[in-house]
Amino acid sequence: ANIVFLTPLPGEFGGMHNSSNNETGSSMWDYVDAMQKVCAKYDIPVIDLYHNFSINADNYDSYTSDGLHPNEEGHSLIAKAVEKYIKSLM
After folding, report:
1. pLDDT per residue over 20-35, tens digit each?
2. Quick one: CA torsion of 82, 86, 89, 90, rounded to 10 degrees?
3. Residue 57 belongs to what H/E stretch?
4. pTM of model > 0.85
5. Maximum separation of any 2 CA atoms in the chain, in Å
6. Exposure check for the chain: N or C terminus, fewer CB within 10 A?
7. Residue-level pLDDT at 16
8. Superfamily (CATH) of domain 5-89
9. Phi then psi for 6, rounded to 5 degrees?
10. What's the pLDDT tens digit per position in 71-89?
11. How far apart are CA 53 and CA 3, in angstroms?
């Protein structure tokens, strides 16, 4: 079995905008960066949904049901990214 991490999709995150800070002073960018650093340290692959999709403030509602959770289109994007990763292992 192989372990792979997926970063979150860009979006509202329950009021925590991508560039704004939460109560700990961290933004979603900070969390994604930390995830990538920890995974790199332990040689764990990361599928970067956050940076590798053209989801932004103008269209995220087309890919999420509530600003956070993917809808059918969002799940389709994630599935394609995971499929591409799995094929790269073969």
Report:
1. 677 787 888 888 999 9
2. -150
3. none
4. no
5. 43
6. N
7. 44
8. SGNH hydrolase (3.40.50.1110)
9. -120, 130
10. 999 999 999 999 999 999 9
11. 22
